[in-house]
Design a protein that fits this description.
Layout: E1 3-8, H1 15-28, E2 33-37, H2 45-54, H3 66-90, E3 93-97, H4 100-108, H5 113-130, E4 138-143, H6 146-153, H7 173-189, E5 193-197, E6 199-200, E7 203-204, H8 207-222
Parallel strand pairs: 1-3, 1-4, 2-3, 4-5
Antiparallel strand pairs: 6-7
Helix pairs in contact: 1-8, 2-3, 3-4, 3-5, 4-5, 4-7
Length: 224
């Protein structure tokens, strides 16, 4: 049976880099493996609208209901579901750079209290129950404080979906702090989550060291 691994964390935490490193390591170990990066900005109709949202076309973060925004991100995965299903059928491991938990964390960070709990359940219900997306076997949480993440965001190369140095979500440090809090809660509540700290004390760990710790965390789940 194939294994689905999700790599999660706030913007700037290195998800894309570590997802690619994990795929390289798995292939070097002789495993058939495929990588998906969500959102698929250029490849789906929903992905293109997510790009519009992150560029501010529909308003600022606090001007668009997170219940509605969540449908864009869920729709991007639903539109990608046939490809994801085929990848799971043809490979030993599928790695996702962002998955359903990203939608949960980013949207739930915009509300509080009972509404937050309602939104978390809403996203999970839409993506897992209504759209019947496969659940990940393991989720790796790249735990990086916001002050370090914002510095790394400023060093990012230009992305396909925006000509800004930082999109709406990346530019709001207070919002990213709330997203980090949701991710921490999810990691604490779910035994299938694997937390990998990106810091050693106050210093950022090297890409290679984080990659080694990610591999150590997921090795048991991906063992043939």
């Amino acid at each position: 049976m194939s294994v689905l691994i999700a790599i999660e964390g706030i913007d700037g935490s290195g998800k894309g880099t570590q997802a690619a490193r994990l795929v390289e390591r798995l292939r070097a170990e002789g495993r058939r493996c495929e990588l998906f990066s969500f959102p698929r900005y250029r490849d789906t109709q929903f992905g293109r609208k997510i790009g519009d949202f992150l560029n501010g076309r529909f308003g600022q973060l606090d001007q668009v209901s997170p219940f509605l925004v969540s449908l864009l991100f869920a729709g991007d995965r639903f539109e990608s579901k046939p490809l994801l299903a085929r990848a799971l059928a043809e490979n030993d491991v599928v790695v996702c750079d962002r998955y359903v938990a990203s939608n949960v964390a980013h949207q739930a960070a915009k509300v509080n209290g009972a509404e937050r709990d309602e939104l978390i359940e809403w996203v999970r219900s839409v993506e897992y129950t209504l759209y019947e997306l496969p659940r990940p076997h393991s989720t790796v949480f790249l735990d990086l404080p916001v002050d370090h993440a914002t510095k790394l965001i400023s060093l990012k190369a230009q992305r396909s979906y925006t000509d800004r140095a930082a999109d709406l979500q990346e530019a709001d440090a207070a919002y990213l702090q709330r997203v980090h809090g949701i991710y921490s809660r999810l990691a604490a509540d779910n035994p299938s989550w694997l937390r990998v700290s990106c810091l050693d004390g106050d210093e950022l760990k090297s890409v290679d060291r984080i990659a080694a710790e990610v591999w150590q965390a997921v090795a048991a789940a991906t063992k043939g």
